[in-house]
Write a structure and sequence with these properties.
It is built from five helices and two strands; from the N terminus they run ββααααα. It is mainly α. A hairpin with a 2-residue loop joins β1 and β2. α3 packs across α4, α3 runs parallel beside α5 and α4 crosses α5. A two-stranded antiparallel sheet has the order 1-2. The radius of gyration is 28 Å and the shape is flat.
């Protein structure tokens, strides 16, 4: 086909996009269905001893809430710096103030120490 003096190829048919993520999830569903049909124990290969991740996370959250209840001496540190460290490192006010004091109010190093 010629368009304005240029040769433009014509393609007939339907364009299909291969969705790999749906194929992978479909394969996982099929494997799960096959293992259940085979009468396999859904808890085979792992145990439930000790605390679960959700319980450990709840314990950590309780500790952080207790940290927030205490009054923190933030003299010499700007409030905006504390808020920034809290937001970037996802920590309590007490931990943010402590990190800023340890790093002489250096925001970057305080965030890095809390993130690692």
């Amino acid at each position: 086909m010629d368009v304005g003096g240029l040769r433009v190829p014509s393609i007939f048919g339907e364009a299909k996009i291969e969705d790999l993520s749906s194929q992978i999830s479909g394969d996982a569903v099929n494997k799960l269905a096959q293992s259940e049909q085979a009468g396999g124990d859904s808890h085979a290969g792992h145990n439930h001893e000790g605390k679960g991740k959700a319980i450990e996370a709840a314990d950590t959250k309780k500790e952080e809430e207790e940290d927030d209840e205490e009054e923190v001496d933030d003299t010499g540190i700007e409030a905006k710096d504390i808020e920034l460290v809290m937001a970037q490192a996802s920590v309590s006010r007490k931990k943010a103030v402590k990190a800023l004091k340890e790093h002489d109010s250096d925001i970057v190093n305080a965030i890095m120490s809390l993130s690692m």
